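From the methods appendix. Each design record in this collection lists the tokenized structure first, followed by the designed amino acid sequence. Records were kept in a plain field format so they could be parsed without special tools. The example shown here is representative of the layout used throughout.

RECORD:
FOLD TOKENS (316 positions):
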């Protein structure tokens, strides 16, 4: 039986991930975990989802709960709880208050679901990945942040739409911080199998404008509708499905580095990995030009500094 628990299930991301996973019909049970004062809302969400699932003859058990015992035997536990980002805020502005939430959840997960994979969606996700790793005591291959998976999907879509080319012909990736210090790997981007730098010789495309749009994507959506919703939820569901189906796809997530990429150690950043039912099967080596490598190291220092500041602010 495949069981997934979502901590923070009444939030915009949590409830959308739950419904997306249920509709995919690959999970037997989803625990919608909420604080005690939000339990009625979690129950309401499950009733609403059951009505929708009935229209597609999908039989997925939805369990609203505020009892940590209910996450027992989960293959994956998603932490999506935290203070959401508001217009004008950077993801790093959320670091201190959200770290306390993530740390407390990770400690409880280690007690009640010690064999699971922890997936982190709470921002700033790279910082929170390290916080959850240290609080849980898990192996680093089993604590995974959503990282740059959504950023990579966005950039792929931008190229596809700009060039009017099917998205399957675009292969690109974003690494580094999930935030202002993200690093698009343009040097290894290909369009129809052709390196981007050669493709640009015959096509008019303003790459700098696309990258600027990419960096502002989250804030743009928040400014217009108040929150990012479908993009993150589907990206997270995609990661969960990849893990539970043991697909061994190469996706860009946040993981704690020990020198595997550009010699960076002691910090969690977005890098390409092979995902399996055991978590991260391997970190995929990547080639970066000098500019990209320097930007990647800059991102590491920003995230490292914030992570240390957060830990220094913990209330022990």
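DESIGN:
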């Amino acid at each position: 039986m495949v069981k997934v628990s979502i901590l923070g299930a009444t939030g915009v991301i949590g409830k959308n991930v739950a419904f997306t996973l249920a509709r995919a019909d690959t999970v037997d049970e989803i625990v919608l975990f909420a604080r005690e004062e939000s339990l009625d809302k979690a129950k309401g969400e499950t009733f609403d989802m059951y009505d929708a699932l009935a229209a597609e003859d999908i039989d997925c058990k939805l369990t609203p709960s505020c009892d940590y015992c209910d996450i027992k035997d989960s293959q994956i536990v998603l932490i999506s709880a935290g203070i959401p980002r508001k217009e004008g805020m950077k993801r790093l502005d959320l670091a201190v208050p959200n770290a306390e939430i993530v740390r407390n959840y990770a400690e409880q997960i280690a007690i009640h679901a010690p064999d699971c994979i922890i997936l982190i969606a709470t921002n700033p996700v790279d910082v929170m990945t390290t916080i959850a790793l240290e609080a849980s005591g898990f192996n680093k291959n089993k604590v995974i942040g959503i990282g740059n998976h959504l950023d990579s999907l966005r950039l792929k879509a931008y190229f596809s739409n700009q060039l009017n080319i099917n998205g399957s012909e675009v292969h690109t990736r974003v690494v580094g911080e999930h935030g202002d210090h993200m690093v698009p790997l343009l040097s290894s981007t290909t369009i129809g199998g052709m390196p981007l730098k050669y493709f640009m010789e015959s096509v008019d495309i303003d790459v700098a404008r696309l990258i600027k749009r990419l960096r502002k994507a989250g804030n743009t959506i928040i400014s217009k509708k108040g929150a990012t919703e479908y993009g993150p939820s589907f990206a997270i569901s995609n990661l969960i499905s990849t893990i539970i189906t043991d697909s061994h796809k190469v996706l860009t997530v946040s993981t704690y580095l020990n020198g595997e990429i550009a010699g960076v150690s002691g910090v969690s950043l977005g890098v390409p990995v092979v995902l399996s039912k055991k978590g991260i099967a391997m970190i995929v080596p990547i080639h970066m030009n000098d500019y990209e490598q320097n930007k990647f190291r800059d991102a590491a220092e920003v995230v490292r500094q914030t992570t240390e500041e957060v830990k220094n602010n913990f209330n022990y």
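APPENDIX NOTE: The longest helix spans residues 290-312.
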